[in-house]
Every structure is written in structure tokens, then in C-alpha cells.
Amino acid sequence: MSEATVKPRDQKFGLQMFLVLDAVLRLFLWWSPIALTAALITATNSWPGKPLVGANLDTAWMWGQKLGQWAILYNLIYVALLIALRALIPTPKEGRYDLGSGSKLDRQLLYSAFIATLTKARYHAPFPGFLVFHIASLPPMRWLMGPIFGPRSKSYYVTDPCIIDPHMVSVGRNVTIGFGTTIAAHYQQRGAVYYKRTIIEDDVLIGGHVAMAGVHVKRGAVIGAGSIVLPESEIGENEYWSGNPARRRSVLPPPGERTTVPNDAMITV
Question: What is the pLDDT of residue 226?
Fold first, then answer.
């Protein structure tokens, strides 16, 4: 059958299986830290000796402190499980993978699906996991999270940017990413999905609500807020890009020199 007559693969079954996988994994990541945290606190005999119901202020304060410690331990275990599970999954390779009905589902797509469930669990942690971003972004977990889970980043953020395919995204130093921006390393066309690394070099400023996938942003570049950067774009050093689709608007002075950043590159954090 020629490429022109290959019908698209019906993605309904695959998406249903992805949802099942996502639900099972999310449940496991929710209940496992709860059980392990409770068991550790019980094993160390660390629960307050008096009940919380009907307690006076001193006892209630002790319970508050213990629950705070419980939350920290829960988040540590949650992030450790994310890292451990990610370490078991092979890193997908860059390339083009067909989705036509006559093509065989490549195992690289299966690896990507497993990593996608872990990424969702990272960004949408259950209520007890409200410190996942903090734990994952600070040492010592950061030293494991970057190399194993991704992204490989030398920058810090006060909000967790939505970085899809973190295993294929690298971020340099002094990079600012605006609120609501999505950075991916895959994009889909009719009948195929493409995986290509996204590289962001040092001193880059990315405005809020930007979308990009499979791009290379070089040192000192600025991307205006709300821009859509097309896949496989290469943004040169100190270039200012904006629009939908984004394109080069001007070249800015090197980082460190006083300059005025265009209004649509303002950051919301």
C-alpha cells in the first residue's frame, strides 16, 4: 500500500489504554507514599501521645508540626518514586514515527507514553503532593531529578513551567520562562509524530503563554508573550521573535547591556 493510501490509525483504543495506565499509575503514586509515610512515623513512634480531637493548644500545635513533617516526608517519597520509575523506562529516540493503520506501533512511542504519565503525575500531583515542585527543584532531589527525569536545567523558577517530554529538553543558565508557557520535544502531523530535542541556551527570556516544540533557542534570545514557535525553528543569539507563527523581529544587544525589551515579552510569574 502506498504512503498516499495509508489510512490514519484509529487512536481511540490507544488513548483509552493511556488513560487506564495513567489512572493506575496515579493511584499507585498516591497511596504508596501515604502508606510508607505512615509506616515510617509509626515505626519511629513519632505520633503525638494525645489525640487531636478535644486537644488543647499545645497538643494541637504538636499535631500541626507532626502533620507538617508528614507532608514533607510524603513529598520526598513521592518525588523519589517518580525518579525510580523514570529510571526504569528507556529514553525514547529522536525521529519520525508513523501512525498509519498499516504501520506497526513503535516501542519508542510506548516509552513516551509511560514517561508522559509520569510527567502528568509530576505536574498534577495529588493534594498531599503540594510540595512536589519545591522538593524536585531543590537539592538533593534536584541532583537526581534533572539527569534522570529531566529537564536538564541550570535555571531555577518560582513557578513550575510546563515542560512536556522533559527527557528531551535542556535549559541553560539564567533562563526566565513566563507563566502558562508550554515547552515540548514532540509535534504531530497527519499520520506521524516527530520527536526532536528542544535546546534553550543561557540568558534566554521567554514570555508568558508561549508554545514551542523541537526548537533551538540560542543565548540571549527573547520570545514575545503568546508566540507560537514552529517546530525545528532555530532562534539565533540575541534575536527577538514574536507572533503566530513566531518570526524574527529584531536583534537585541548582548545580555548585560541596557536595553528595552518589547512589551509583548513581559513576563507573568
Answer: 93
